[in-house]
């Protein structure tokens, strides 16, 4: 089957700091890195490197060929990435402290200019059994989710950056919601309980992850692997991409969670976001070395 991704594409500019700046404080960075990011691009890279057939639906500036090139080099179908002369590629300013934690500011740029008619040929190819990944970093979320759901495509929505109004609008068409622990707490508090969807994937950082099957009332958990953390940027996207790629191969939930947890563990040992996502062979080797 195919994993379609209505996904953001960002250029990440990461600054390493001794600690996060306090209000009014100016800090000198101890390091700088520019690379490929955006929750959408990260998830496409992760799913493709996990062995899935991935088609990315998005947009980037014509001047940033290297961005699209990195996706293509990892096996992502980039045919449906719209190229602009007059729109900047989305970008993110990432602050990383010595503990590996991060704070991020994003600018949507081309990610917020998408038009449905730009993806007519892709939509025509979607079929039952496929997956559609989405995140709250592009427009067209509701329109494409509605079309996908009518075609029996399972919609997996990463509710970040968290916005309850955006989530409510797309919620009727979602199969699986992917959130971190804080977002899950916000979601259940604002809705007064679990959402009416097939399942929730909740990543908990160093505490591992959980999948709640909301149809059969079953919970599956996986612990995090013990590694030396260098950079947590994009770890949740790596987890989500690997998890959906496993579901696409008809693997069971525990197997999908374990593979995704191993991929995320490897990712956080490396600097960067999309560029740091491991390939399937690396993840399998990592798992083989675990006791």
From TrEMBL:
ATP binds at residues 180, 203-208, 236-237. Catalyzes the phosphorylation of ribose at O-5 in a reaction requiring ATP and magnesium. The resulting D-ribose-5-phosphate can then be used either for sythesis of nucleotides, histidine, and tryptophan, or as a component of the pentose phosphate pathway. Residues 7-279 form the Carbohydrate kinase PfkB domain. It is found in: Cytoplasm. GO terms for biological process: D-ribose catabolic process. Activated by a monovalent cation that binds near, but not in, the active site. The most likely occupant of the site in vivo is potassium. Ion binding induces a conformational change that may alter substrate affinity. It comes from Paracoccus tegillarcae. GO terms for cellular component: cytoplasm. InterPro entries: PfkB_dom, Ribo/fructo_kinase, Ribokinase, Ribokinase-like. This is Ribokinase. Its cofactor is Mg(2+). The keyword Kinase applies. The active site is at 237 (proton acceptor). GO terms for molecular function: ATP binding; metal ion binding; ribokinase activity. Pfam families: PfkB (PF00294). Homodimer. Substrate binds at residues 10-12, 38-42, 137, 237. Its EC number is 2.7.1.15.
């Amino acid at each position: 089957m195919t994993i379609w991704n209505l996904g953001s594409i960002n250029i990440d500019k990461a600054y390493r700091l001794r600690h996060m700046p306090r209000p009014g404080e100016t800090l000198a960075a101890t390091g700088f890195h520019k690379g490929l990011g955006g929750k959408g691009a990260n998830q496409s890279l992760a799913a493709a490197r996990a062995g899935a057939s991935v088609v990315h639906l998005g947009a980037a500036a014509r001047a940033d060929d290297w961005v699209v090139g990195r996706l293509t080099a990892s096996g992502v179908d980039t045919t449906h990435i719209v190229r602009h002369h007059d729109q900047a590629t989305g970008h993110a300013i990432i602050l990383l402290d010595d503990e590996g934690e991060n704070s991020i500011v994003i600018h949507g740029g081309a990610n917020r200019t998408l038009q449905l008619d730009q993806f007519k040929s892709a939509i025509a190819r979607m079929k039952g059994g496929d997956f559609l990944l989405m995140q709250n970093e592009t427009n067209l979320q509701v329109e494409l989710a509605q079309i996908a759901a009518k075609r029996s495509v399972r919609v997996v929505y990463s509710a970040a950056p968290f916005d309850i109004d955006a989530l409510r609008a797309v919620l009727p068409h979602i199969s699986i919601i992917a959130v971190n622990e804080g977002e899950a707490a916000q979601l259940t508090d604002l809705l007064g309980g679990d959402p009416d969807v097939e399942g929730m994937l909740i990543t908990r950082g160093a505490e591992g992850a959980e999948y709640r099957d909301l149809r059969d009332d079953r919970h599956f958990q996986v612990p995090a692997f013990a590694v030396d953390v260098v950079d947590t940027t994009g770890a949740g996207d790596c987890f989500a991409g690997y998890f959906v790629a496993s579901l696409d191969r008809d693997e069971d939930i525990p197997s999908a969670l374990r593979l995704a947890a191993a991929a995320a563990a490897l990712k956080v040992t490396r600097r960067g976001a999309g560029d740091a996502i491991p390939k399937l062979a690396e993840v399998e080797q990592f798992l083989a070395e675990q006791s």
